[in-house]
Amino acid sequence: MVRAQFLLLSACLLCLAATSVRDGVYSKAQAARGKVSYGQDCAKCHGANLEGGESAPPLFGPEFQTKWTGRTAGDLFNLILKTMPTDDPGSLSRRQCADLVAVVLESNDYPAGPKDLDSGADALAAIHIEPKK
Amino acid sequence: MSRNSSLPVLLIFAALPALAQHGAANGEWRFYGGDAGTTKYSALDQIDASNVKDLKIVWQWKSQNFGRRPDFNWEVTPLMAGGNLYFTAGTRRDVIAADAATGETLWVYRLDEGARGVSPARVVNRGLAYWTDGKGDERILLISPGYQLVELNAKTGLPIPTFGKNGLIDLTEGLDRPNVKPGSIGASSPAIVVRDTVIVGAALLAGTAPPSKENVPGYIRGFDVKTGKRTWTFHTIAQPGEFGHETWENGSWKYTGNTGAWAPLSADEELGYVYIPVEMPTGDFYGGSHPGDNLFSDSLVCLDAKTGKRVWHFQLVHHDVWDWDIAAPPALVDITVDGKKIKAVAQVTKQALTFVFDRVTGKPVWPIEEKPVPQSDVPGEKTSPTQPFPTKPAPFDRIGTSIDDLINFTPELRAEAVKIANQFKLGPLYTPPIVRDTNGKSATLLLPAHVGGANWPGGAVDAETGVLYVASVTQQDPLALTVADPKRSDMGYVGGMGGPPRPGAPARVTPVGGDDSEQFAMRPAPKTNIGPQGLPLIAPPWGRITAIDLNTGDHLWMVPNGDAPDYVKNHPAMKGIDLSKAGRPSRSLLMVTKTLLFGGDGNNLWASPAGAGGNTFRAYDKKTGKVIHEMQLPAMTTGVPMTYMVKGRQFIVVAIGAAGVPAELVALALP
C-alpha cells in the first residue's frame, strides 16, 4: 500500500515535470476515447473534425494556438468543464474533459506520449500551452 | 404529367375537405407544417383576440430522460391526428404518442442503432410524418439519427413488418458511393407523405472547412408508403445525360456531395407534386472544386411525387459561396394577382429574399431579374456573373453591408463601429468571401450572413388571405478563406469565422475557467458580438417579423420581435437609449390561425449570443402586427408552435428549452 502510494507520487512528480504540451502529455488511447465523446457532445457545433461550424470556432489552427499560448492545459480543461457544451455546461466529468483536452491537443498536432493526461487540477496547471514547433 | 391525366385526380381530391393549400384541416395537424403545403395555418378560432389573455399552460411533457443527455434545443413540431400527438423526443429521437388533451404518454418507440446512431450528422430534429388510408390504417414515419426510415403502426408504436426490413429501410443505400460512413448523412427535418409516396431529404455535416471535396450526395428519394420499396431517386447533382449536367464542370458531379434538402419539404396533394428546397454543394465558402452553376444546388425543385420526375425548378443562387442553402420550407398558398387566381409557392431565403412562383408551372409571379454581382478574386474560384433578384416582394431584412447599416446610437459608438467595419470588405448582396487579409481587409462582412435572414423556421402563411408572415434576424458575420492545410483538407481553401483578433478589433472574450470563474459554471459561453464593446455592429432591429401580401407582393407591416436582449439593455453604453423596438437576434417561430398570429421568442442556442432570446410568447394582430397579448413560458420556444382541437378545446403546443432547461412541450389552452 505504502509502496503503491509512493509510486503514484513519483508518477505525479514526473507529470509535473512535463511542463509543455509539446512533451507528449496525453496518450493516443485517451485521444481515441475522447474522440467518441467529442462526436457525441461537441461535433454538432464545432464540426466533425474540430474545424468549426456555423456558430462555434475551430479548435485547432493558428488562431486557436495564438489565443491559448501562454495559458495552461488547466485553463483549457476548465473552459470545457465549466462552459461546454454550451447547451449543457457543467455536465461533463473531469475524466471526460481530460479526454477532450487530449482530442484538442492531438488535433493541434502536439505529440502523444505514453500516459493519459491527468485530470487533477495541479497536474493540468503545470502544463503550458506553447506554439507548435 | 399531361393535363389530361391529371384531371381525374383533381376531381377526386376536390371532393375531400382537406385541401393542401387550405391549412391544417379538421382541427388536426397531420403534417409538420400543419398541411402538406407547410402553411402553418389552422382555421381554428376558439382562441381569439378577446380571450387570448386567458391562455394558461395546461400540461407539460418533459423530454429530459430521453437520450443519453438531455436535449435543450428541441426543434420539434408534433403532429396531431385522431386525438393523439406524435413527436420525436430527446437526443436519440425516440418516437412518442401522447394524448392530445392531457399530454399523457401512450407509447414510446426507441431504436437502438448502436454505433450507427452515436454521432449523427444532425442531432436536431423536427418531427415525423403521418400516413393513413382513411380506413383505419395509420402509420408514422421516422428518419432515425443514423439515417434509417422507420415506419410504425400509429396505434401501437410497433414497426410495420411488411415495410422494408421489419419496418426499417437503410437510407445510406443507393447514394452512388461505395461506402457511406455512419454519421456522414442524416436528416433533421421529417419526411413528407404525398398520397402513397414517402419523400425523404438529407442533411449532411456542416461544410465550413470540409475534410474533402468528395462527399456523399444528398439525393431525394421516394418510397412506397406500404412496402418501403424505393420507387425513385432524384439526383440533386445532375448526372450524365440529365438536365443540368454541364453545370458541374471538370467532372465535379462525380465526387461532389451535399446538395441535400435539410429543410422541411412541402407538397400539393391535389397536384401530386412535392417541392424540394435544395441546399448548396460541398464547401460552404469555396466552390473551386466544383466550377459551374451546380444544378440543382440552391434550387427550388418541383417533382412529381409518384415518379420523381422533375416538373420544374428554379435556381435561387448560382454557384453558392455564401452558405445560402435554401433553408426554409416552401410555403404553398393560393393567391389572386391582378384578378388572376394563382396556385403559388413562396420561398423565403437566408439572404432575405422572397421568390414567388406559380407552383404548377414554375413561372415567377413577379419577374425575377438576373443582375450582375461582384466577382470573387479567390484563386481557383469562379463565381456566377449574375444572380437572380425578385422584382417583388422587396427584401424582408437588410441586404448587403455598408456604413449606413452600422449602429448609430451615439457619435462615439458610430465611430467605433465604422472603425471595426472598415477592417472588413463591405459590399452589396453576393459580395464573395475574400482570402483572409487581402488588400488590407481581414474578411468579407456578410449581411445577411449564412445564419441571418430566414432559416428553417421560415414563415407562416394565412391560407385564406394569402398573407405571408416571415421571421428574420439581422445577422452579420465576417467570413474569410484560408489556404487549406493539405493534411486536413483537399478543398484548396476553407472558410473561417473572421480571422484572428487584430489590433483595434474586439477580442473574442471566452470566459476562461480558473477558480474565480464559478459564475460561468452553469452559463453558456456567449458568442461574442463583433460590434463596439460587445454590442451588435448593425443597427436594430436585430430580429423582426414582416407581413407580405402575396396577392400584391407588397409588405403590409414590419415589427421588431420584442425589445432588446438584456445584455444590450444593461450595457453601460446604452444608458438612456430607447431599445423597446430593437428586437432580438433570434427568429420568432410563427403559426397563424383564423384569428391571430402567434410567435415565440426563438431559438438562439446556435446562432445568436446566449441570453439574446427570451421566454415571451406573443399573439399578434394579423392586420397590423400589434401585440395583442404576451405571456412568459418557462424557456424560449425552440420549435414551430402547432394548434388543434380536441374534445371541444383548442390547444397550442410548442417545444421550449434553453441552456440548462431541458426541453419540454407546453400545451396552452383557455381555462
What is the structure about, briefly put?
By secondary structure, chain A is an all-alpha fold.
Tally of DSSP helical segments of chain A: 7
Instruction: Summarize the amount of helix of chain A as a percent range.
Output: 40-55%
Estimate the global geometry of chain B from the Cα principal axes.
Answer: globular
Q: At the third CATH level, what is the topology name of chain B?
A: Methanol Dehydrogenase, Chain A
Number of strands of chain B: 42
Nearest-angstrom radius of gyration of chain B?
24 Å
The succession of helices and strands of chain A, N to C, reads HHHHHHH
- CATH fold category name of chain A: Cytochrome Bc1 Complex, Chain D, domain 2
Greatest chain-chain contact: A-B, 39 and 49 residues
CATH homology group of chain B? Quinoprotein alcohol dehydrogenase-like superfamily
How many individual domains of chain A? 1
How would you name the CATH homologous superfamily of chain A? Cytochrome c-like domain
Give the N-terminus to C-terminus distance of chain A in angstroms: 41 Å
Q: Residue-averaged pLDDT of chain B, rounded?
A: 91
Query: Helical amount among residues of chain B, as a percent range?
Result: under 10%
